[in-house]
Amino acid sequence: MLNKIKTIKIAGHIYKFLFPYKFQERTDLSAQADHPQCEIRISDQDINGNKRAESNIREDLWHEIIHCIDEAYCAGSLTESQVLGLGQGLNQVLKDNFIIYYKGANHSSK
């Protein structure tokens, strides 16, 4: 399902969603938000090359979206622990309450 997402609108910007992304510059990363490039990159593999669970990938997506919101509206004031907790919490609430998300997220930049 994540393969269908091409872009995500956040804070008036259209972020390109790159999944699966192969990190070459830093192999310790599983996800990254690049604000100047308006890109969210998420790997489908862990640092050992093993396939990651979809729940972890979705959690990373929310984590990076929160970084983008924080950058746009809070000048990057959230700590990494706060972003981590919010990402985990959003993923859990949406998943456990049967809210359909990611569906229809292919926004056009037109």
Q: Count the E strands.
A: 4
Assign an overall shape. globular
State the domain count: 1
Regions with little confidence, pLDDT below 50 for 5+ residues: 102-110
Q: Could you tell me the strand content as a percent range? A: 15-25%
| Overall pLDDT score | 88
Q: Using only CA atoms, what is the Rg?
A: 14 Å
What structural keywords apply?
2 helices; 4-stranded mixed beta sheet; 34% helix; 110 residues; alpha+beta
Describe the protein's architecture and organization.
The chain is of the alpha+beta class and 110 residues long. The chain has one domain (2-96). 34% of the residues lie in helices and 16% in strands. The chain is built from two helices and four strands, in the order E-E-E-E-H-H. It has helices at residues 54-73, 80-96, and strands at residues 7-10, 13-18, 31-34, 39-42. The protein has a four-stranded mixed beta sheet, covered by helices on one side. Strand 1 and strand 2 (13-18) form a beta hairpin. Helix 1 (54-73) crosses helix 2. Residues 102-110 have low confidence and may be disordered.
Quick gist of this model?
This protein is an alpha+beta fold. It contains two helices and four strands; from the N terminus they run E-E-E-E-H-H.
Reconstruct the topology from this structure:
Elements (H helix, E strand, L loop, with lengths): L6 E4 L2 E6 L12 E4 L4 E4 L11 H20 L6 H17 L14
Parallel strand pairs: 2-4
Antiparallel strand pairs: 1-2, 3-4
Helix pairs in contact: 1-2
